[in-house]
Specification:
The complex is a heterodimer.
Chain A lengths: L1 E2 L3 E2 L5 E3 L5 E6 L2 E6 L5 E6 L6 E4 L5 E6 L4 E6 L6 E5 L7 E4 L5 E5 L5 E6 L5 E5 L8 E3 L5 E8 L2 E8 L4 E7 L5 E6 L5 E6 L6 E5 L4 E5 L8 E6 L5 E6 L3 E6 L5 E6 L3 E2 L5 E8 L22 E7 L3 E2 L16 E6 L5 E6 L5 E6 L4 E7 L6 E4 L6 E4 L4 E6 L2 E6 L10 E4 L5 E5 L3 E6 L11 E4 L3
Parallel strand pairs in A: 28-34
Antiparallel strand pairs in A: 1-41, 2-41, 3-4, 4-5, 5-6, 7-8, 8-9, 9-10, 11-12, 12-13, 13-14, 15-16, 16-17, 17-18, 19-20, 20-21, 21-22, 23-24, 24-25, 25-26, 27-30, 28-29, 31-32, 32-33, 33-34, 35-36, 36-37, 37-38, 38-42, 39-40, 40-41
Chain B lengths: L2 H12 L1 H6 L10 H6 L2 H10 L8 H14 L17 H123 L6 E4 L16 H51 L8 H16 L5 H6 L1 H42 L2 H34 L4 H67 L3 H28 L3 E6 L21 E6 L5 E4 L10 H25 L1
Parallel strand pairs in B: 2-3
Antiparallel strand pairs in B: 3-4
Helix pairs in contact in B: 7-10, 8-10, 12-13, 12-14, 13-14
Classes of the chains: A mainly beta, B mainly alpha.
InterPro entries (chain A): Centrosome-WD_assoc (IPR052778), Quino_amine_DH_bsu (IPR011044), WD40/YVTN_repeat-like_dom_sf (IPR015943), WD40_rpt (IPR001680)
Protein name (chain A): WD repeat containing, antisense to TP73
Pfam families (chain A): WD40 (PF00400)
Chain lengths: 458, 585
């Protein structure tokens, strides 16, 4: 495992282009584009103000930089560096800006969600979509880029509009059976739209592309409901994380629950491997079986490694304050591996634990207990390999073969706040508070010579 | 002294008449119990302070004592009939002695009684103590019981109060739920109102912002860029709308298509598995068919059915079965049938296994598993060399077969075999010969015995004739008695003679002298190591009668002659007995 040198960035605005060739980073009001392989600066653009949002177009030709405070969006071309485009939303304000899937339109959501403005870069045409709903996830594009689903609110009722992205033709418009729609998401094959209600009511609705209600699912009533929803990449499962600390898996044929994954505070499952992160302050261990090799300067003498805990294992639980809104309880993060084989979840009142479930056996495979709260986890887009970070200087990786923790070998205390896989799965972009660093995976076998400590399940 | 007289003595001593008569004596007035306990002391005192007899009242005293003595059932000390006033000293002394004896006996009984009393009193004490203890316990348990009852009452009260509480709580909950519901509806209403206002405001804001001239929304592009697909954008027309609809349905259809295809594949897979299962089931069931031919009739019917179905589901028709609904149904039905049968079969096997296990458990009591295992191991060990032996034999045979063998060797081999065979026959012949000899000897013995018997019979006949002659000629009973004695001894001699002759034969003749007087014939069974087929036990009871008992070995058939001999022997002895009884009478 190799690490690149550290680059500056701000607001964690760093993105690799969809084709995987370029790396765009924002530093204050500057946009820097580098070649991923050489890390040489290719282009440097200067925006009008501090950039608050940056995104690549789907064809990797344009970069959008939004300055929400100023209500401005600037678009840069990679091919024509002197080409420029500036969209001013004026006094109506701007809260969100995104590319349309074709990469030729920009959708701006105005302040107070008054409307969505669709700007065409081809014709300079502008069109408005009224009544967008301000919610968790109000807009979603289908994976193939053909359709856009938009949540709307009219006359105190929820509606969903399905647009054809090609010419923004309204294909379907239908009312949903929700009290207060919180989000919608297309299935990866683009044929089913999952719609869920706000946390006050547990309700998940499944609509066909043509607006037919396929199924409605509700696990329970009264108490707080859905917290997160994720489709599996093969569109066969819909995972619903809720405030009752459970994940329910629906199937794609009957849309009924197949199974539910609980997140108990004590794990008695003997088949699941519990990896516990242990921090050690000692220098090179004499009796240490796991590989601890100090590299470079011994600035960070806290080394962390995984140990396998025999069951039963007690997991630290933080009791949420019942008087406060949005209690820190329930499953907030769900992620399927690229082959839909594994599901990683995080329960908010056990913030330092990531659970990995096997979707073939429908059982718990591994539990990663970290020393601090998990910030971010993401699956390798090519392999069943999970990367996670906890806001410290270590990168953690899980795969069915075992667990590994890697010290990021940078000076000045690079604390990993977030991470992003490269589309090839060969490298990983680590984002610190104001820095970024690329981590290159070894294609064949994990390198044992750099401060890694391996932990293999028995 | 007998018990009754002793009792009389006691009653006499305590009786009030006695008290009246000896009014002067102090001890008689005192209650008898105390007197018993202080028996030694008053006697001594009496001796000193005796004023019973003085010079003047000797006569009276004498008569009084006499009376007393007679009342005690002792011979009178002094009799007036004798005339003299002098006392018979001997009688007095005897009387005194008797009295003293009585007194001693009385004392002894008193002591015994005292001991008894002590015992009983202590017993009574003990019983009283235990009864008080038990009473205390009763009291305690009663108190405990009342306490428990009280507790129960309290608990009942508590339960009641709790139930009331629960009811109240339930009411409260209901009330609260109602409140919540009403509040929720109110809140929803308010929300809607607010939202309406909010939308109105939004509209207004939108209007205002759009109308505002100074800072308008704007796009500033250097030059328009082409579409990603390179096409020009189209005008929105009915046609495009239709095209969009069509495309949407196309994607939906393609999705359904892929799903259907997947399901078809899955179905085909499953059907294949079903077919395989069916085939395997049929094969398994057909294996056990011949064994269970005699089974129930419904089973046979099912088998016939399945055979029909087997014809339907030939491998050639598999593809038909895959797509035709009818065939599919038939397949599933047949599988169900087969499965049921397999299940019942397995269940039957299971029950059999359990039964066998039970049986095993029973035998386990006699022979433990370990011994079984040991035996098994031993047998296995034995098997190994046998196998080796067989192997080597086979090898040799193979070698012999493979090697060019001429007629000589084969003839030699056959000769060898013939020789072996002949030897075996010869041995058999020998044993047969031996047996024949044995039988011959036996027969000879039997004939000898028969001859002897006939001789004996003849002798007996002669004897009887003599005896009859004597009876006719001599009617005196004394002469009668002598004759049978003689005949008895003669018969006895005869038997012993047969014994001696028989003992020479391989059969064993055992004479047993019974020491009991029981008339039942006793048999002493004997087992002989020799090949003799008959054992006889003769029990001779010399005192009373002769009993000859024949014990035959049941395994071997008794030859006719022997039987005849035995029967005749028996008859003979029986005859003797009858004669004896007759003579006794």
């Amino acid at each position: 495992m190799n690490f690149s040198e550290v680059f500056k960035q701000s607001n964690q605005l760093c993105k690799v282009s969809p084709d995987g060739k370029y790396l765009a980073t924002c530093v204050q009001y500057r946009l820097v584009v580098r070649d991923v392989s050489t890390l040489q600066i290719l282009q440097l653009y200067t925006c009008l103000d501090q950039i608050s949002h940056m995104d690549w177009s789907s064809d990797s030709l344009f970069i959008l930089c939004a300055m929400y405070k100023r209500g401005l969006v600037q678009v840069w071309s990679l091919e024509q560096p002197d080409w420029h485009c500036k969209i001013d939303e004026g006094s109506i304000g701007l809260v969100s800006s995104r590319w349309s899937p074709d990469g030729r339109h920009i959708l701006n959501t105005t302040e107070f969600h008054l409307r969505v403005t669709v700007w065409s870069l081809c014709t300079k045409a502008v069109s408005y979509i009224k009544y967008p709903k301000a919610c968790q996830k109000g807009i979603d594009f289908s994976r193939d880029g053909c359709y856009m689903a938009l949540a709307e609110r009219r006359d105190c009722k929820d509606y969903v509009s399905v647009f054809v992205c090609d010419d923004w033709h309204l294909l379907r418009h239908f009312e949903t059976e929700t009290q207060d729609l919180a989000g919608l998401e297309w299935s990866p094959n683009g044929c089913v739209l999952a719609v869920w209600d706000s946390c006050l009511e547990y309700k998940v609705l499944l609509y066909s592309l043509d607006g037919r209600l396929l199924s409605a699912y509700s696990a329970y009533e009264w108490s707080l409901g859905v917290k997160s929803v994720t489709w599996s990449p093969n569109s066969q499962f819909l995972a619903i994380g809720s405030y009752d600390e459970k994940v329910r898996i629906l199937n794609h044929i009957t849309w009924k629950k197949i199974t539910q994954f609980e997140h108990p505070s004590s794990i008695n499952n003997t088949k699941a491997v519990v990896y516990k992160e242990v921090e050690k302050r000692t220098a090179v261990g004499s009796d240490d079986l796991s590989l601890h090799i100090t590299i470079g300067t011994a600035l960070y003498n806290t080394r962390s490694k995984y140990e396998i805990c025999p069951s039963p294992v007690q997991i630290p639980v933080v009791k949420p304050d019942p008087d406060r809104a949005n209690p820190k309880i329930g499953v907030s993060s769900l992620a399927f591996s690229s082959d839909s084989r594994y599901l990683a979840t995080k329960n908010d009142n056990m913030a330092s634990v990531v659970w990995v479930w096997d979707m073939q056996k429908m059982s718990l495979v591994a539990v990663l207990e970290q020393t601090s709260a998990v910030r971010c986890f993401q699956w390798d887009p090519c392999r069943p390999r999970l990367a996670l970070c906890t806001g410290n200087t270590t990168l953690y990786l899980w795969s069915p073969a075992g667990c590994v923790s890697v010290q990021v070998p940078t000076e000045g205390g690079f604390q990993v706040q977030s991470l992003n896989w490269h589309r090839s799965g060969d490298s990983l972009m680590l984002l610190g508070k104001e820095q970024l660093c690329l981590c290159y995976m070894d294609t064949d076998q994990e390198d044992k010579s750099l401060g890694c400590s391996f932990c293999l399940p028995s | 002294m007998s018990k009754t007289s002793y009792c009389a003595y006691l009653t006499g001593f305590i009786s009030p008449e006695v008290k009246d008569t000896c009014s002067s004596s102090v001890e008689c007035r005192s209650p008898p119990l105390i007197q018993f306990s202080q028996s030694s002391v008053p006697l001594h005192r009496n001796y000193i302070l005796s004023t019973f007899c003085t010079e003047h009242n000797v006569q009276e005293c004498l008569s009084h004592i006499n009376q007393e003595v007679s009342s005690l059932g002792l011979p009178p000390v002094w009799t007036e009939s004798s005339g003299s006033s002098e006392m018979n000293v001997m009688a007095v002394l005897n009387c005194m002695y008797d009295l003293i004896q009585l007194h001693h006996r009385g004392l002894r009984t008193l002591e015994n009684m005292e001991v008894e009393q002590l015992k009983s009193s202590s017993n009574v004490d003990h019983l009283q103590r235990t009864s008080t203890q038990l009473k205390e316990q009763l009291e305690l348990s009663k108190r405990g019981n009342t306490g428990l009852l009280e507790r129960e009452r309290q608990l009942h009260l508590k339960v009641k109060s709790l139930q009331n509480c629960l009811k109240n709580e339930k009411d409260e909950v209901q009330k609260l739920q109602n409140i919540i519901a009403s509040r929720a509806s109110q809140y929803n209403h308010e929300m809607k109102r607010k939202e309406r206002e909010f939308t109105k405001l939004k509209e207004r804001l939108n209007q205002l912002l759009v109308d505002k001239k100074e800072k308008k929304q704007a796009i500033d592009v250097l030059n328009n860029i082409g579409r990603a697909d390179g096409k020009r954008s189209l005008w929105k027309t009915q046609k495009t709308e239709a095209k969009h609809e069509g495309e949407m349905y196309k994607t939906l259809l393609s999705d359904y298509d892929t799903r259907q295809r997947e399901m078809l594949l899955e179905n085909a897979e499953l059907k294949k598995v079903l077919q395989q299962i069916k085939k395997e089931m049929v094969s398994i069931l057909s294996l056990r068919k011949p064994i269970r031919k005699d089974d129930k009739h419904p089973d046979a019917g099912i088998q016939a059915d399945s055979e029909d179905e087997e014809q339907v589901f030939d491998s050639s028709k598999e593809s038909v079965g895959l797509f035709s609904v009818h065939a599919r149904e038939k397949l599933t039905n047949s599988i169900r049938l087969q499965w049921r049968r397999l299940k019942s079969h397995v269940e039957r096997l299971d029950s059999q296994a359990s039964l066998a296990q039970m049986g095993e458990n029973k035998t386990d009591d006699a022979i433990s598993r370990e011994t079984h295992e040991e035996e098994m191991d031993r047998l296995k060990l034995e098997i190994q060399p046998c196998k080796d032996f067989i192997q080597t034999q086979q090898q040799l045979l193979q070698q012999q077969l493979s090697s060019p063998c001429d007629e000589e060797t084969t003839s030699l081999l056959s000769n060898c075999y013939m020789l072996q065979e002949r030897e075996r026959f010869r041995e058999e012949w020998k044993t047969l010969e031996k047996q024949r000899n044995l039988f011959e000897r036996e027969r000879r013995n039997c004939t000898e015995a028969a001859i002897r018997l006939s001789h004996e019979r003849k002798a007996f006949e002669d004897d009887r004739a003599v005896w009859l002659k004597h009876q006719f000629l001599n009617l005196s009973p004394f002469a009668d008695l002598r004759k049978p004695q003689m005949s008895k001894s003669k018969s006895c001699f005869l038997i012993s003679e047969t014994e001696s002759s028989a003992s020479s034969a391989p059969e064993k003749l055992i004479k047993c002298r019974s020491d009991t007087t029981s008339p039942t014939p006793r048999c002493v069974p004997l087992t002989s190591a020799s090949t003799a087929d008959m054992h006889r036990t003769v029990c001779l009871v010399p005192e009373k009668r002769y009993v000859v008992f024949i014990c035959t070995n049941h395994d071997m058939p008794v030859t006719n002659a022997a039987l005849v001999v035995c029967y005749e022997l028996f008859m003979l002895i029986f005859y003797f007995q009858i004669n004896q009884t007759k003579w006794k009478d």
